[in-house]
Amino acid sequence: MLSTMQDVPLTVTRILRHGMTIHAKSRIVTWTGGGEPRRRTFAQAGGRAVQLAAALRGELGVTDDERVATLMWNNAEHVEAYLAVPAMGAILHTLNLRLPSEQLIYIANHAEDRVIIVDGSLLPLLAPLLPHLPTVEHVVVSGPGDRSVLEEADAQVHDYEELLAGQSPDFDAFDWPDLDERAAAAMCYTSGTTGDPKGVVFSHRSIYLHSMQANTTEALGLTERDLTLVVVPQFHVNAWGVPHATFMVGANMLMPDRFLQPAPLADMIERERPTHAAAVPTIWQGLLAEVTERPRDLSSMARVTIGGSACPPALMEAYDKLGVRLLHAWGMTETSPLGTTSDPPGGIAAEDEWPYRITQGRFPIGIEARLAGPDGSILPWDSASAGELEVRGPWVARAYYGGSDGKELAPEDKFSEDGWLRTGDVGVISPDGYLTLTDRAKDVIKSGGEWISSVGLENALMGHPAVAEAAVVAVPDDKWGERPLATVVLKAGAAVGYPELRDFLASRVAKWQVPERWATVASVPKTSVGKFDKKVIRRQYANGELDVTRL
Ligand code: AMP
């Protein structure tokens, strides 16, 4: 029997119309450095998204599923593009402005971007790439910047505000296409630490469902009374879905634009008083050092969503003392990204929450999970059996974008035959469904037939009062095959000997796991999205570039 219910496509167009009408007064605040921030209501930003859609179609001739790329910071204009491009039926392609040129060129060509919307401040980055981007016909420049660098460009250059000025902001004035909810809406390439970056293509439906999940109280739980500081870049998995989720519920957004250093972040938090924020651990480490040196009031941020790499428990404790609760979340580009959030279970006392908070969290209804052992067998959820995490669900990728021939790349090693995504993350799951990750599969340290969790050693080390950051990698060892090398960044003005750190670790992890090799570094190398770049550390070690002490 068929149901008697209406079949309404779940599209970004609905999110746009809903946000700009029902939550018309909600705001996007964009930081401008010194002066007054740019403040724009959802009604205004939505109206401008309508104008952008009309200009892209009417002036630039964007049709069907052509790719409109963005090379932008987090700001109101980027949100406008987020909504306008998918709603008009085209595909938003967010370019990661921190990638090396050759990767950006590869990605833009692979996606065959036809238009690039660029912040004026990023023109020096874009201009030298353009001669290598034959598919790009139009460059739309938003905000101040030296446009003379585009004089030689083959592409037509437009001014964002001028394009919008010629169009009506009235939602009903534009002829929106009837979209299939399964059609592509946006794409994002994985950061690609090995091999070429791979394109994940989100559908209207996956974005809509993911946003609904993000808005549950177990996830971000934002409402119209919130102001969320969106530090996670809009080019990193759709800023973890925050801009779409906020347009659904009217939560206000504070966008840092290019002012991502700890000092301006502390200033904007103290002045604008966000209630929530989202960013990777590196950002919170930097901010902690900043406010330790020059205190600012961060206490408005009752909740902070932290993920992208493991959150050290010591960081949570430090922020607890500042009245800021860090909520651990796990995800990846392929999972849109929200895969787990660490909301402790009901019915337990506040002092019993800690063991749950330091896990990566629980799976929401949209994510089914299983752990696969080395032989492919499915492991029990007993908090002890470690295996590779596999997931599936309506906002999980089933393949990668294969380029214009339309072929999907589904490398054997990433998608199982029965349709699960192999995450490459290794961990355990508790009987009540809380995930604890111990490593990336490629970062596990295999010592004498046993596995050592690099994340476990890092978390323990970052609990030492003198240690700001610690990254542990596997290095070759004649006797054991591999052993851990600990690289540490000391806090400003702190001094500590390796024997003390070794003894500190020995009291927290099994003795045989304690590293013999130690090095102090000025900073841990980071990827384009702020994760520890262990590939670089391993290379530095192999090339003898680290000053290693052996205990
Ligand atoms: P990306 O696609 O760039 O977002 O990277 C996804 C990867 O980041 C995951 O597969 C994990 O290895 C890592 N990751 C994300 N969140 C966490 C977390 N909370 N704890 C540990 N690793 C994480």
What does this 3D model show about the protein?
27% of the residues lie in helices and 24% in strands. By secondary structure, it is of the alpha/beta class. Among the domains are: 52-222, 3-Layer(aba) Sandwich (Rossmann fold), CATH 3.40.50.12780; 443-550, GMP Synthetase, Chain A, domain 3. The strands form 5 sheets. An 8-stranded mixed beta sheet has the order 2-1-11-10-12-13-14-15, with helices on both faces. Strands 7-6-5-3-4-8-9 form a 7-stranded mixed beta sheet. Helix 15 links the parallel strand 24 and strand 25 (517-520). Helix 1 packs across helix 2 (42-58) and helix 1 packs across helix 3. It is globular. Residues 190-191, 237, 307-310, 328-333, 337, 360, 423-425, 437, 440, 529 line the site of adenosine monophosphate.
CATH class value of the domain at 52-222: Alpha Beta
Low-pLDDT segments, ≥5 res? none
Q: What's the number of helices?
A: 16
* Radius of gyration using CA atoms only: 24 Å
Fraction of residues in helices?
Answer: 25-40%
Strand content: 15-25%
* Distance N to C terminus: 72 Å
CATH H-level name of the domain at 52-222... which superfamily? Answer: ANL, N-terminal domain
CATH-defined architecture of the domain at 52-222: 3-Layer(aba) Sandwich
Q: What small molecules does this complex bind?
A: adenosine monophosphate
Strand order of the main beta sheet, please? 2-1-11-10-12-13-14-15
- Derived from helix and strand composition plus strand pairing, the structural class reads alpha/beta
